[in-house]
Structure formats: C-alpha cells, structure tokens
Amino acid sequence: MLSPANYDKLRLWCYNQTAGKTIGIISGIVQVSFGLFLYRSCVNKWSRFGADGKDTMKKISLLIRLADRKTKLTFLFLALLLLWLGLNYRQLYSAWVVRSETQRLVNLAAKAPSEFQNPPPAEDHFDGELSPDFWEFTTINGGGEVSNGMAWHSAAMALDQSLTLQHFPDPSFKDESSDWHVPAADQYNNVSLIGGSGFRPSASRDVVLKFTMRVSEGFYGSAGVIFQPVGTLREDGLLSEQFDMFGFVVMGEESLVMGHNGPLCYLALSMIMVQVEPLQVDVQSLHTYEIRLHWIDQTEWLGSLKVDGVTQSQIPMPAFGPVEVHVWSDNGVALYRPRRWWEIGPVMDMKYQDGGEKQVDVEMIQIFEEER
User: Fold this and answer.
1) CATH of region 115-371
2) Radius of gyration of the CA atoms of the chain, in A
3) CA 205 from chain center: how many Å?
4) Which tens digits make up the pLDDT trace of 27-48?
C-alpha cells in the first residue's frame, strides 16, 4: 500500500507527466494550425495560374484532408491514452515502485559478500524490563510527535511476565489532522520495538524468529511481528523510503488488505503489498509463531510462517540483506477498493481510527540461526 508520504510524490509525478503531455498536445495543435494557414495561402497563390494550378491544388487538398483525418485520430488516441493513464496512475506508480525496489534489492544482494557471520542468539521473556541483548530502541507515536518512553499520548507498553502494547481512547482524535507530516500524522497512534538486528540467511543456515502472541477482544487497527532491512525505522521515528517487510500481521475487521483481514502472512516492498496469505488461527488465544528466512540463492529468499509448528504460508521474496525485527501495534485502517473494469488493479488507502482500548500481548520472543 502507498504511504501518505508516497502519495505526495505520486501527485507530483502525475502532475509532471500530465504537464508534459499537455504541452506536447498544444504544440501539435499549433503546428497543425500553422500548416492550415500555409495551405490557405498556397490556395490563393496557385489559383492565379488557371486550370493546372487548380488541379494541383485539388490533389494537395486531398492530401491535406487525409492528413487532417490522421491528425484527429491521433489526437483521439492520445486523449484516450491520457484518460486511461489518469484513471490508473496509482496502480501504474505502485507497479513501477515494486519493480524498482525489487531490482534495487537484487543489485545490492548480488554485490554483498558471500561470507557473513550472524550475531549470537537473543531472546526476551519480559521479566520486568526489556532485554538489552535483544532490543535496540522503542518508539511511541501520538499527536504528531514521537516518544522513546514507556507511554505517550494514547498508547503505552507494559512489562509484567509479558510485553503488553496498549491503546486507549484518544480524546483529541477528532481535532487532530490525518495529513502525513514528519514524523507522522497527528491521528496516528503507534507503539514499535526494534531489535534482533544483523541476521541474514545463508546457503547453510536459516534465520528463525519465534514468538508467542495474542490480541484482545474488539481488536482494531493492526499489530504484528516482521523482518525488515536493518535501518528501516530510526530512533526518532522516521522511516526509510524503502520500507520492505515480511512477516505476520493481524488486521482489524474494518481493514481489507488485498481482500483479507484478520491474521495474515505478507510481503510488502516500499510499503506496497506484493503478496498476502490469510492464516487459520484464533488470534485471541496464545499461539507460537515461527517466521523463517531461507536462502535460495544470492538474490532470492523464501519466507515462511508456522503456527504451532504447522507451516501455513511460504512466499518467495528478494533478499533483504541483514534484517531487524519490528514488533508494533497501531490504529491504522487499510481501505481496499476492488478493481473496476477500466482499472488494471485494486487501490488501497490508509486511514486512522480511535477504536478505544486494545491490547497486544507477546510473552516470549527469540531469534537464532539454524543449520539447514
């Protein structure tokens, strides 16, 4: 899905494209008008030479009419093409972004050294504090600002034999803006943790991330645990333009991601969904999840997800390079518009909701490499 920040780039891109096409059409009209002016001047001059001149001008007139008909057909084709491009600009832009990001990742992976040493295993059981061996930093978004504390605005995290990500009613939500700005929209409420950094699969070893998780009744927004390239999210809350993700997410019933909500396994490149697979699991009960990155070759991996030891999803993906773990819960709502007959694909938008109280519990998380 396109982020609000990418929408601004998209509008600028479309404006430039439309402006260029418009200038081209105006130039063509000016050229045709000038040609017709010259034609009328020639008619007036050739008419002075009698019958021979008039016969010649009849032939020229026929050629001009044929050329004029082709010009009109060309203008009609260009008008229809511009209309189609305008109606599909978001889908075309998304396809171009995914293709470009895939190629960028492939190029980086092809240049990466084959020899790589993974960090030692790390885990956290949340015994009253976050393990410094696993986690690097936390962020909480709210009211358009970012905090690195345990609570901010209408969200918080608690530690008592588990990690609990909490959301509360936002009394100022209706007065806040949904427009994206640095670091985030005022209405966006999010809790994120970043850790488990520096792992990468190889020809002899997989990277495995295990965790237990459940969500509360009345769940809304989204929450999940994913792999992303190292450095995707910074401590000041800013995101990289290339927000690539693979892993597990729970989407509230108000959302639709490629026609699905609830528990999902997904791959996204530059925040645009590439593949989504629904999972069969009751997310309100505690389950053990395993996300595995498997090396296929230098530029391609296979991402898989198990629930209680049973494989439920496998998705081919470009190699991300060294990855980090991102655990989050937010109030984002994915709005899905199915493909219409004149469109080449569906469209997704992101909004925010004040859904009241919700909780996401993670009781254990661990990351390690495993011999293949």
Assistant:
1) 2.60.120.200
2) 28
3) 29
4) 554 454 445 444 455 545 444 4
